[in-house]
Each structure stands twice: as structure tokens, then as C-alpha cells.
Amino acid sequence: MARDVRVLHVSGPHERLVSQLAQIKELSGLSLRALARDAGLSSSSLSRYLTGRLVPPWEAVVALCRVVHRDPRPLRPVWAEADRAGAAPAPRRNDLPADLFDFTGREPETARVEELLRTAGAVVIDGMAGVGKTSLAVHVAHRMAGAYPDGGLYLDLQGFTPGREPLDPPTALGRLLGALDITHPPAGEQERAALWRSELSRRRALVVLDNAADADRVRPLLPGAGKSAVLLTSRNRLVSLDGVPPVSLTPLADDDAARLFGTVAGVTLTGEDGVDQVLDRCGGLPLALRMAGARLRHRPGWTVGVLAERLRDSPARFDAAFGMSLRQLDDPDRRVFRLLGLLPGADFDTGAAAALTGLPPGRCAETLDELVDAHLVLESSPGRFRMHDLIRQYAADLAAEEEPDPATALRRVLDHYRERAEAYDRMLPSPHRPAPAPGDPQRAMAWFDLEYVNLIAAFDLAVRLGADEVVAALPRALRVWFFRHRGTGDQVRLLDGAAAAAGRLGRDAERAALLADLGYALAAAGRIDEALAAYREADRSGPGDGLAATLALRTGFAHRDLGDPRTARESFRRAADLFDRAGNRSGHAQALAFDAFVTLRLGLPAEAADLARAALDRADGPGRITGLVTLGVALAHDGSGDEALRHLHEALDLAERHRLQHQQAWCHTYLAVALRETGSMESALEHHRTALALLEPLHEVQLEVECREAYETTLSRHAAGQG
Predict the structure, then answer these.
(1) Contact at 8 Å (CB) between 485 and 509?
(2) Strand, helix or coil at 514?
(3) Mean local confidence (pLDDT), 528-553
(4) What Pfam families does the entry give (predicted)?
(5) E strands of 254-383, at which residues?
């Protein structure tokens, strides 16, 4: 008969549940990944449950108990109390654009799409531009929201966006994973795709992937097993996308087209002359019908016949509808419209539009309201706007023909993004500045999250325009954001371009700093040889003493990661000397601490302990962690077990108090090493497992390699001791 899981009494409901889950893991004798696999969970989810960052659903608790053949029922009260007392569940994620209030027709297509989502879990809506693919996808997603309690995700793949390249799969996966709050995704496309499928497998979410260019770009984004679903749109038929059935849209039939036109226009069409002519000029395209209806609504003195006569004056059917909507605006508003066609990025707010046009924000907001009313601009969420690709291209074509100085307008908006990014960056805490500027750091980070796609587009536009001031500045303003979201493929490209721009501007010191950041980004991506090349180039640019010390320190990190502790030690000692001469106490302490660490790796524990003590004399706060860990491990090697563990627990306490998850994993690993050296194998193995659980969602490859090597050594010694 199955035995009950023993309920321990630990303070706090959430802590009690975590304790029980840890006991289950210990009983299983499995690694985190193996336990997750056997329980049918994702390893990243299990890591969050075991580290107390997420209360698991009851089904997950049951699944874990089944793995160890234990009765889960005694855990039900503990789980229920933790579920009630834990943090309130995050609100349902909803990135979807607003549903159209006037959505009309498409009943058979709507029913078919919903059926395929329920049965196949995937569907692609294809059809010509302007036929209403996105509108149908968003409409269905809102209708089916209740079936997907974990939310609705939306990503524009930019397959047909004027002036933009389609998103490549790694970039698209990075943004989708970011929407799931995974800020450190792996670097490779296959690893990202696997993580994306794993994350979706434990959720019930609906993912809308809009404007797909081709099947090859979409295939890595599809969910695997699980209850999530994906809804695609494309102008092309994605016939090679196996397992994703298509629903093709044609222009609206006359009855539905007339109904939509009448709804938008606010008129009854019975007995009105000219209806057939209007419908013919709009070609059954919902986009054109909405524009024509808006034109009539804003001209109460007109009849449908007058509108039909005006539409006949335009040679092209769809341009007729666009032009009619545009002609209802005055000249300043028409200028705003055509300039918006040049705006970089996916969407925009009033501030960006005001900068582009040179208008006061209040006046610009009024114009945007007019453009929304004319269906020339969509308000995707309060204060955020976007343009349909067809209309955007129409506006850009008009700007090319009519705008006398578009480059000046574009440089204004580039300066706007640069200035806003720099202002918000100054609010974010960072080691490279003494104190952040006044402001709300959470609001600042939220702004970067919201505008990130537009900032990347602004950088690319600045490169095309030769706006080197912006090219050089934007990556530095994104420095803290990139540090918190390591793994993005954009960082290396931006820093490389920025360093080149700084060189063209003759700013050698700035170029050196950008190259130093480029090397750091390359090292974080595991491209160590390229990182060293960037550091050497930065050194040739003549950095100041402070940057020279930082370069020496980072060069030491690179050689350490390459498995060359002797060369690393030389670099750390050079860094220590430079920091000391510059009077940089914390930098000096850091260089000494890492010198101590590689000295320990060279088998010199007594010398390593002396260096670590010297580092601790100069360090404070979390800067003490490396020195404490090194001193603890060195003392453990020399047989001073109690003192060693005291230093290591102090390091772990600092990492936990400052919420440094990477450092927590590192501290647990070397606590395990010290315990191993003192013969406490079972405790050592538990700390190793905790370290790997902490690392699971971070995807820090280099650190995971270090921690796994230490774990494998402990396992080998444990097995040898038992043998």
C-alpha cells in the first residue's frame, strides 16, 4: 500500500509546501530534468516550484507524488494553504490587439477556425492583403479566450511590413519567450525552440502569429505536445507547413460587405442609390469598406450616391478608398498621415508621432484621433497606435512623392527615441554609475520592454541614414536592459555597429567602451575567442585607466572560461594593479577575489586563501561573495571545515538577500564542494541539485558547465566511497 508523504512543520505556508516538494525530489533520487520528465512537467516549471518562485497547480503535486509512489492526499491542505497565501496569480497574459466592434460576417470561416483550434491545435488563415486575416484571427482569439486560461500571445512576424525585414526564427522565439517572462533564453535557435515548446506544453495559451512570410520562418515557432494552440496569418499559402490546416479568406460577399459598410457609415442602405458602386470600388475588402464608411459618416450631407461618384474619380479601387479617407483631412493632418508611413518600428505613441511631425503633443494627439476615426490608423491599446501594412505603404508612397524633407523628420524621431532611452536608462540601478537618477526604475524597465522593438528599428534606421550619434548612443542606453535580458541576438549586432559609429566620429574612448561591452556580450553568448578579439581591439583604442582595468578583468574571465587559469591569473593581477592605482577599491577587491579563485584552481589553497582575505578587506555587500566562496573552499581543502562552511553560508546569505540567482547557484555549488571535502556527501549532493535547479531557467551555459563538472566529481567520489 502506498505510504503517505510526511508533512513537515516549517514556518509559512509557501515554505511548508516547498519543503514537501524538496522531500519528494530527495525521495526520487532523480535529477531535476529526470524528475520533471517522469512527472510530465517542464524542468523550468519544476525549478520554479522547488525554489519557491511559483505555487504549482495541484495536478503537478499529484504527478510528482506518483513518481515516488506516495499518496498525495496529506499534502492537499498544505498545497491549498500555500495557494491561498502565496502571491496572487499573475493576471492572464493578453497581448492581443483589441477586437473590432464592427466585425461583420465570416461566420463559416470563424466556425472553421475555432473547430481547427480545438481539434488540430493550429490553423493558418491566408488571403490577399486587406481581406481581414488579422481581424478574423484576433476576433477568434477573443471569442475563445475562456478556453485558454493562460492567456493570448500576439507577435507580428513582419512578413509584409514595408521597410522591415521579416523576423528570423531566433528573434521571434526570443520575443515569445520574453512574453513568458523568460529573460535569459539560450542563444541557439534549436535550444530556443525546444524551450518554447516546453514552456507551452505546461500552459493552455493561444498564440497568434501574424503576417508570416513563409513556412520555414514559422516552423520553429509551433508548439509541440500540450493544450496550447497557434493561429497564423499569411498572404501566402503555407502548403508545406505540415499539421497546420489552412482557412483561406476571399473578399466579403455583397451582403456582408454592405452590412459592414452600413455599420461603419451609420446609415441604413435600403433604397440608397450607389451602394453597388461603392461595394465594387472597395472590392469586398473590409479595410476599404471601413474607410469608405468612415468617409460617409463624417459627411452627414452626403448620400451614398455622392460617395460612389467621388470614388469613381480615382483610377485604382483600393487607393480610391484610402484617398477618400485622406481627403476628409486638412493639410496638416494629411502631412501627419504620410509621415507616419516612414516611422520605424511596429507601433508608436503620441510622443513618437509628435517628434516625427514636429507638432506639439496635444495637437498631434488630436490628429491621431482624426486618423483613428478615418480608419487610417488603429489604436491597438490606449495611447498606442499602428497602421495596417497596406495603409502604411500608401502613406510611405505619398511621403516619397510629397514630403520635401523626410530625413529631417526621421532624425527628429531618432533623437526622440535616443533621448527617452537615455533618460530611462539613467533611472536604472547599475554598477557603472554611482547612483541612478530620480525616477521609478520599474516604470523605466517597463518602457524599455514596451519600446524594445521600436528601439531596434530606430537603430537600423539610424544606420541607413548615417546618423552616427544615434547609432553610437542607443546600445549604451540599452546596456542595463540587455544585462537583464541576456541572450538576445540583437545586442552583439548593435554594439558592433555602435563601435564602428564611434570610430567614424573620432571618439576613441567611446569606441573602446563599446568594444568592451561587445566583448562581454560575446562572452555571455559563449563566443570566447571573439570576445578576446574585441577586448584586444578595445585595448588598442587607448582606453583610460578605469576601462583598461575592466578590460583586464574581463580578459581574465575569458581565459578562465577557456580553461586557462594561468593566463587568467596574469590578467586578474594586471586588473588589480590598475584598479589599485586608480583608487577603485571595489574593482581592486573584485580582481583580487578572482585571482584567488583561479589560484585555487591551480592547486594553491594557502595562497588563494591569503588573496581572498585581502579581497574581503576591501569589499562590501555582494562584492564579498567571490572572496567568501574562494576562502571557504580553500579552507575546506586545508581541513578547516567549520570555518569554511561559515564563510560559504555568509556568501549564500548575501546572494539571497540581494536576489542574485546566478550567485546563489554558484554558492550552492561550492558549498557542495566544501561539504564533499569534509565528507558530507549527501548534503553536498543536495546543494548541487539546488544549484542546478536555480540555473535551470537562466540558461547560463558557462556557469552550468562549471556547476555540472563539480556535481559530477561529487557523484564520482560518492560512488567510489559506496563501492
Answers:
(1) no
(2) helix
(3) 88
(4) HTH_31, TPR_12
(5) 348-349, 378-381
